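Collaborator request, handled under Task 6.
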Amino acid sequence: MRGYIFLTLIFSFFTLTGCENNDKTDPSVIGELDKQFILEAADDALFQVNAGQVAASRTTRDSIQEYGEEMTTSHTQAGKELQTLAAARKVQLPTTLSDERQQQLDSLSMQTGVSLDTLYLNQMVAIQERVVRLMEIEGTSGKDTELKQWAADRLPVVRQFEERAKALRDSLE
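Structure tokens returned to the collaborator:
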């Protein structure tokens, strides 16, 4: 009888510890959607840093220079945060732009004057809209709670940048 009770206790212990609900997930285990989010967000942040530098140094408008400088500062910080999140998940972020983003940067770098201002602001509106969608998708469909929180925290900032880019673009017309 004691043997039966002992086996029942052992079985119960392993069953209960195996079923323990642990909300802390191992950050090194990452789903494909979450991984794609990190990679795309990092590429977009790197592009916005580089494009912001081009715009800030070559525009003739103070408002666009200020916007470019803010984009550079904000997205440098976002890139550092993404690097930390990626490292914890064993995701290697590229150190160079994707081909698509590099082509956009090259196109921007070839412009001057009003053409540069117009292209930069059009690019910023398009990329901010894309990043808003990307963060909304991560917020609703992502599995990694820390990434979802980062996206939720960053989303208002991105929306603000989007609205400012639209207002600056509209002021050119």
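The cover message to the collaborator said: "The domain at 29-172 is CATH 1.20.1260.10 (Ferritin). The helical segments are 2-18, 32-58, 62-88, 99-109, 113-141, 145-172. Please let us know whether this matches your experimental observations."
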